[in-house]
Amino acid sequence: MAVKAKPVSERELDALEASIPALASEATHSAHLRALQASPRGVLRTEDGNLVRVSADGAKTIVAKAKPRRKVKVGETISVRKVSETPTA
Q: Which residues constitute the domain of residue 39?
């Protein structure tokens, strides 16, 4: 038996779309915390133009200077090379 989707009004759709940034922020923060728990060596992130290793206890170590972000024009295609099949330990 197929279930039909309920039609959604513009107002309901706008309300759902407005909640996306908060949900994305919460999901990103949650993923960061899970990564900290899973990795004894910490996680890497960029901070003030530096590549920083953050450990679960909050200690920060500057690893290197972060490369500037790449600006991409609308419609431009970029290629990304695969570094390795398996994540490093």
A: 11-65
Least confident of 15-19, 22-26, 68-72: 68-72
SS3 call for 41 = coil
Tokens of 89: 């330990």
In this predicted model, what pLDDT tens digit does every residue of 31-58 receive, in sequence order? 999 999 998 889 999 899 899 999 999 8
State the pairing for strand pair 50-54/43-47.
Answer: antiparallel
DSSP annotation of 85:
S
Number of neighbouring beta carbons within 10 Å of residue 42? 19
Is 78 among the domain residues? no
Q: Report if residue 81 sits inside a domain.
A: no
Query: Which residue's entry shows tokens 């419609």?
Result: 75
- Cut 0.70: pTM above it: no
Domain count, the chain: 1
Residue with token string 């090379």: 81
